[in-house]
Every structure is written in structure tokens, then in C-alpha cells.
Amino acid sequence: MSLVTLLPFIVLIGAMFLMTRSAKKKQQAAAAMRNEMQPGTGVRTIGGMYATVKEVGDETVLLEVAPGVHAVFAKNAIGAVLDDAEYNRIVHGDTEEELPAVPDDASSLTEAAEAEDTKDAKIDLGKKDEAADAAAPKDDKDGKADGGADAK
Fold it and tell me: Mean pLDDT by 10-residue block, N- to C-terminus, for the chain (152 residues)?
């Protein structure tokens, strides 16, 4: 067998090795993240539910999904362990900076835009003047427009 016939198999085996290695690293990182869970930590499950960890067992986690409502989940069902600031921002809507007030309806937005329009003069870009000049024929001394010659 020559090297040319073995080359596709070598490339295939190398690609499989690289894919399994990256998947293994991801699994190890997820396991380390799940082992960092402690009671009081905010988490997101793989289903997208946010909860607070109450108890951590060997294979399961007791989560408080609402005040007084507890549910038992498998540790593998935890998608992310969140830090306190991120958990409070997502679940409770807490923000560190003040956000601008958003009106309840759009009428105040249009009123503000109308007030600005009346306050500021309209900007004339000069398009109308150029169009009017092009449409009006220019008079020369013999009454012809734009150098039109009198053909005889």
C-alpha cells in the first residue's frame, strides 16, 4: 500500500481525534461548573428555567424555582451557573445603571417629534429650485431655448 491510499484514512482518524478531544474538554468544563454549585447560587437549567440552588446531592440538585416551590433536578440538567449580579439582572430585573424612562404609549414619542419639527425650520436642500430651473426654458435673444438652432 502506498501513502496516497492511506492518506484519507489518516486525515479521517485525525479529524475524529480532534473532535472527540474538544468534546471531552467541553464535558470537563461543564462538570467543573456543576461542581461549583453551592446553596444560594443562581442557575439556569438546560430547559431555560432560572432557579436558586437549595441543596446539592451526588447526582441531583434541589432548586427553588419560586418562593416556597422546590423541584429536584439531575445535575446534568443544569446548563449554567450564574453569578449573583447576572442572576438578579435576569430574574429580578435589577440593573446597576439607571435606564431612561420608556413611555407607556407611543403618543408621547410623536408629540416630541412634532414639537421638534415646529421648533426647527425645515431644511431646504435646493432640489426644488434646480428642478424648476431645468423645467423652465431659458430664453436667448431669438427666443429659442438652450441653443436650439433654426433648421431651414
Answer: 82 90 86 84 91 91 92 90 86 67 65 59 62 57 56 58
Q: What is the DSSP code string of 19-65? A: HHHHHHHHHHHHHHHHHT--TT-EEEETTS-EEEEEEE-SSEEEEEE
* Spatial distance between the Cα atoms of 141 and 133, rounded to a whole number of angstroms: 18
Distances (CA, A) of 152 to 106, 141, 142, 148: 68, 19, 15, 13
CA atoms within 13 A on the CB side of 109: 6
Give the full edge-to-edge strand order of the sheet including 50-56: 69-74, 60-66, 50-56, 42-45, 78-82
What 8-state DSSP symbol labels residue 75? G
What distance lies between CA 52 and its chain's CA centroid?
Answer: 26
Report if pTM > 0.85: no
Q: Coil, strand or helix: which one is 90? A: helix
